[in-house]
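My convention is simple: the sequence line spells out the residues, with the fold written below as integer tokens. I include a record here:
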Amino acid sequence: MKNNNLMFKNIGIVGKPRNPQAAETIQTLHDHLITEDCEIWVQDSLSGDLNSDKAHFIAPDKLGQSVDLIIVVGGDGSMLNAGRTQIQHQVPMVGINRGHLGFLTDVRPTEVVERISEILRGQYRAEDRYILNAEVIRDQTIIGHSTAVNEVVIHPGEIAKMLEFELFIDDHFVYSQRSDGLIISTPTGSTAYALSGGGPIISPQVDALVLVPMFPHTLSSRPIVIDANSVVELALAQDSRHSPMVSCDGQENIGLTPGDRIRIKKHPQPMRILHPDSHDYYEVLRRKLGWGHKL
């Protein structure tokens, strides 16, 4: 049994169920945490992926009440989902990459034992990422709300249809627009959907928010970078003929009707991510986006 002088003792494991690669890493992680004499709490949907007589299986929304560290095994989508469901508990998270890109899940599967051992003993870099809160207001009443780690997207809900809306920032009218929608992205999301829409990459250390129009009908419409503490509001045209949607991280969807207002602002609590000491944000960008190496 290893040295028990650990910063984290109660460990939560969440991830991608019924995925052979993720299951292999989850088992390796579990077995290592047992040798570290940790108490282990596991997302209940992973019960079929893990051979254990010591882990406690629990619903994901209850996990944060029992643990002081959450380890996410999967892709960035798994990390986004964990970030939204655990935000109220303010438990730090570590990501082990079993997905495709891995901007957020930056521990490689081959390094699980080494990196997790370091993190348990306080050898890590902590980073707070702000997330967004989105509210849908209809006739002065909030009829839906959700959170987003990457982005909030307002879209028509149908292919090849256009939206018409007005944009306000801190109660100042900015413009009216006809387009396929608008992406409101955090720096975390600037390497995701917003990037594919032509938005800039924003360092996580910059407290900013980016608004990226989706196929605007006016060629002068361009991405806008604003203060992250701004309140963004969109007002849908009253004569809209479609059934538009608000999408948060591509996973939570709220239906809209003509005249609805969507209010987006920074969530009061951040998401804390722990990186290995060797983590380098720009090295991650270089590797994931295929940038040139030093001459």
